[in-house]
Amino acid sequence: MPAARSLRARVHAALDPRARPQDGLSALDHALIVLIVFAVIAAVAETEPTVLRGHEGLFAALNLAIGAIFAVEYLARLWSAAERDPARPWSERLRFATSFAGLIDLVTIVSTLDPLLGFNAAPLRIVRAMRIVRLARLGRMSAAIHHLHDAIVSRRYELLLSSFLALVLLLFGATSLYWLEGAIQPDKFGSIPRAMWWAVETLTTLGYGDVYPVTPGGKLIATVMAILGIGVIALPTGILASAFSDAVQRQREAERERERMDG
């Protein structure tokens, strides 16, 4: 039992940067990075017919091999997750399996191994190109993700308020254009849901040009929406940037305090 526990602890430390006392990537992390980047390149290249033509068997074999490796990694993470709280091993394993990262891993594996499972999981294959997000759990990037999560949680009320303001402005713009130009351009502004597409384009300052007002009143509303949109989009960006900076600063202060106490 102690030997198995020791092996599980080593596997957990190799897979989870939070379980390692030192910063940086483990040898396994480096190998996983190479594999993930290669898998993403293969998934992107596979969508090009001129590349896939004549190499279907090769890509199928690569997908199965990569899927098998990721399946082993998933099982290792599931097994070693018990190290987070050895007194409640199955609870920690269930926590990992139902986490966002665990679910993404599982969907990725299923989408890769679908030929062996006997059903067509074509809609899931787009996930193959999203394996790149798995890098977020490795090394310092994992810590940065935790900082971002803390930033969002700490500023959730401010972000909710800015989202509410954006929604009010969207409804105002869409309703105004429906009232002003619904009869003139019924295909574009004949209803509030139709006018909502224009409102989103204008508020985010994208301005595709496929939908635009033609009346003086409509142009006035568009001008107001475009000007206010700059502030509405910048508001949550500033809130998140400030909160993220605060989270990083707190982490650095905690590290300096630990170094001072150890010294």
List the helices and strands and how they pair.
Layout: H1 2-15, H2 27-46, H3 49-52, H4 56-80, H5 89-97, H6 100-112, H7 114-117, H8 139-154, H9 156-181, H10 186-189, H11 192-203, H12 216-262
Helix pairs in contact: 1-4, 2-4, 4-5, 4-6, 8-12, 9-11, 9-12
Describe the protein in words:
The chain is mainly α. The chain has helices at residues 2-15, 27-46, 49-52, 56-80, 89-97, 100-112, 114-117, 139-154, 156-181, 186-189, 192-203, 216-262. The longest helix has 47 residues, at 216-262. The radius of gyration is 25 Å and the shape is extended. 19% of the residues are buried.
Mean pLDDT across the residues is 80
Q: Main sheet?
A: none
| Rg (C-alpha, Å) | 25 Å
Q: What is the number of strand segments? A: 0
How would the global form be characterised?
A: extended
Q: What portion of residues is helical?
A: over 70%
**For the terminal residues, how far apart are their CA atoms?**
36 Å
Runs with pLDDT <50, length 5+? none
What is the string of helix and strand elements? HHHHHHHHHHHH
The share of residues in extended strands comes to under 5%
**Number of helical segments?**
12
Q: Provide the structure class.
A: mainly alpha
